[in-house]
Design brief:
Elements (H helix, E strand, L loop, with lengths): L4 E4 L1 H9 L6 H4 L3 H7 L3 E6 L2 H9 L3 H11 L5 E5 L12 H14 L3 E4 L10 H9 L3 E7 L8 H13 L4 E6 L6 H14 L4 E5 L6 H10 L4 E4 L13 H8 L10 H16 L15 H4 L3 H13 L6 H14 L9 H15 L8 H7 L12 H8 L17 H7 L7 H9 L1 H13 L10 H11 L3 E6 L2 E10 L6 E8 L2 E8 L38 E2 L5 E6 L6 E2 L4 E7 L2 E6 L4 E6 L6 E2 L6 E5 L1
Helix pairs in contact: 1-14, 6-7, 6-20, 8-9, 9-10, 15-16, 20-21
């Protein structure tokens, strides 16, 4: 047997899995010469969540990143992860967009396209594979590995045959959650090798602690290429360690031929780089055997924990992890990989945060039940389907067959902000954040999210949250030290302080005296006969009656569907919010007339705000 080849993942899946895809291009380029000299079969450096993160958080042009990496890695094949008909977005695109995107990616430097579909619906892979072959690049037809009552070895062998017939150059096994066991890996690869005549890649996250053993069994049973990650960003929710696998295979018939000492030079560099991104580190990215039950993939777990942290709900992670398998079963056991991992994960968060399962249902879950993502692997819950879409007709054809060509429309819509075909495709992937990105880039006002040092964070915390201070009142100064407090949100909140060394309890009562509409505080006239709604830091009122419409989680308003004076019924969609990269329709809390709208498209909102008010009938 020939030597085993390695695809290195440190520039994409490694940091996506461990630091929420936040590594910047400036930290990749200095080490590229050494990466390029190693002799990897390919280096995965683009695709997946990197495109989204560049535009949304880092304020980098993802196409410019690819061009820079192509120049810095002249001797290496650059590998990207492509979501079939979804490309790098969260919906299906028309076939002309798929061909335009693949052509542009190939021209910009991608040599290898690892193509998968979140439902393993081969119909959604056909056009992407055809597009890759048309531009003369390598297409890895990929199986999204998962376990369920319907996902057995025969299922995946049948899929591998279909991928070979579509023209794939190789077969990839994408084990995004680390579910493969060594025994199953051997059985699966032997079965696929007996059915198809293509090389086999194995890609497995290390979350369950099984991946290194599974890769070894894969090699022993006929896999040609394994995906690994430099130890600076490996293991846990990431992947088996490159250096360790190279050492394990050295001197055997599977020897990779790679230089361990040179690999360790790369390790030393990235270990220092990782320190910059400490604020994105998560306690949920180590080995966690619960993944064998909840199936949350490595690329999702760090983002999920980061999103819960932003909502102040990180303590509810266990509830979310327990809810995910239940939602997955309701949806017919889809593999949990982008975008289905976000679809299932976000719905699970909503179910937990609202306290009632499916009280709020995301637009993506509704579209899933409508068949707009493809065919579910097994029958869905009819009761949940009824809640989501009622008696709406479900499509049964390939979803993209219903899409008219889109490129001309996208070019027209983005004409004023797009300076190239690449810009049009950026807008196509993410119309809202893409438009904002392009506008800011054109204006020269791009500003990435801040990277904080631990020292600065500690200093800021001390400066803005003092617990010991002097108060001067009527010419007399008191030394006050805060020693404790009651729970935030209580109507009358106790604060425990010492005043000049004497312990005291101070009761702080929030008075509802802020004028929201006028934007200024009232004069505090306690004789006022009508209390006004307390305002949040944004100036919006807090929910203060049954007609107040709120959101279950922080997000961004993407559509306002009702205006003052509109008559609405309880359950009517009045707002659309984007949270955790998914859109969620917010419904009227009661039947009545809209009397106030406190938000506009693009506003950031939180659960403690009244976004819209309805006067009940």
């Amino acid at each position: 047997m020939s030597k085993i080849h390695i695809t290195e993942l440190v520039l994409r899946d490694g940091h996506q899995s461990l630091i929420a895809t936040r590594m910047r291009t400036e930290d990749m380029l200095p080490i590229c010469a050494k990466l390029d000299a190693i002799g990897f079969w390919s280096i995965e450096a683009w695709g997946g969540a990197t495109f989204d993160a560049c535009v949304r958080f880092l304020k980098e042009d993802p196409w410019e990143r690819l061009a820079k990496l192509r120049k810095a890695l002249p001797n290496s094949q650059i590998n990207m992860l492509l979501r079939g008909q979804n490309l790098l977005g969260y919906r299906h695109y028309s076939d002309d967009v798929v061909h335009a995107f693949v052509k542009q990616a190939a021209n910009a430097g991608v040599d290898v396209f690892r193509i998968f579909d979140a439902l393993n619906d081969v119909r959604n892979l056909r056009e992407a594979i055809t597009a890759v072959k048309k531009v003369g690049k390598h297409a890895i037809g990929t199986l999204s590995y998962t376990t369920s009552p319907v996902h057995d070895i025969a299922y995946f062998v049948a899929m591998a045959k279909e991928l070979e017939e579509l023209g794939s150059d190789s077969i990839g096994i994408k084990d995004m959650a680390g579910l493969l066991t060594p025994q199953t890996t051997g059985e699966l690869i032997r079965a696929i090798k007996s059915a198809v005549n293509l090389p086999i890649h194995v890609h497995s996250h290390a979350t369950s602690g099984l991946a290194s053993m599974s890769l070894l069994k894969g090699v022993e049973n006929g896999a040609s290429i394994i995906d690994t990650c430099n130890s600076s960003f490996s293991e846990g929710a990431s992947h088996p360690t490159t250096e360790s696998m190279v050492a394990a295979l050295k001197g055997t018939e599977y020897d990779t031929g790679l230089d361990l000492a040179k690999l360790q030079e790369i390790t030393a560099y990235f270990r220092e780089v990782r320190r910059k991104y400490w604020q994105y580190e998560s306690e949920f990215t180590g080995v966690d055997t619960r993944v064998l039950v909840n199936q949350v993939p490595g690329g999702m777990i760090s983002n999920l924990s980061n999103q819960l942290k932003e909502q102040g709900a990180l303590d509810r992670m266990d509830e979310v992890l327990a809810e995910i398998p239940r939602v997955r079963e309701d949806l017919g056991f889809p593999p949990l990989v982008t975008p289905t991992s976000q679809i299932v994960g976000t719905q699970a968060v909503l179910n937990v945060m609202t306290g009632t399962r499916y009280k709020s249902i995301t637009n993506e879950v509704k579209n899933y039940f409508l068949g707009q993502y493809g065919q579910a692997p097994s029958p869905v819950s009819q009761s949940v389907r009824k809640l989501a879409i009622g008696d709406a007709e479900v499509i049964t054809c390939r979803p993209a067959d219903l899409l008219a060509p889109e490129m001309a429309r996208l070019q027209a819509e983005s004409e004023r902000i797009a300076k190239s075909e690449e810009d049009v495709l950026t807008y196509a992937m993410f119309p809202d954040i893409g438009q904002t990105f392009l506008q800011e880039r054109n204006a020269g006002s791009l500003k990435p999210e801040a990277l904080h040092t631990k020292e600065a964070a500690n200093t800021a915390s001390a400066r803005f949250a003092p617990n010991e201070f002097n108060v001067t009142l009527h010419g007399e100064t008191f030394h006050i030290k805060l020693t404790g407090s009651g729970h935030a949100g209580e109507e009358k909140r106790p604060f425990y302080v010492s005043v000049d060394g004497i312990a005291e309890e101070v009761i702080v009562e929030t008075l509802d005296e802020i004028e929201v509409s006028g934007g200024a505080a009232s004069n505090g006239n306690k004789s006022s006969s009508k209390k006004k709604a307390a305002a949040t830091s944004s100036g919006r009122p807090r929910p203060h009656h049954a007609g107040c419409v709120t959101t279950a989680m922080p997000g961004t308003i993407v559509a306002v569907k009702a205006k003052v004076g509109d008559k609405v019924k309880a359950g009517d969609g009045v707002l659309v919010i984007e949270a955790m990269k998914m859109e969620n329709e917010i419904q009227a809390a009661t039947t009545g007339t809209v009397v106030a709208v406190h938000v506009s498209k693009g506003d950031s909102v939180t659960p403690d705000e009244s976004l819209l008010e309805i006067q009940p009938e």
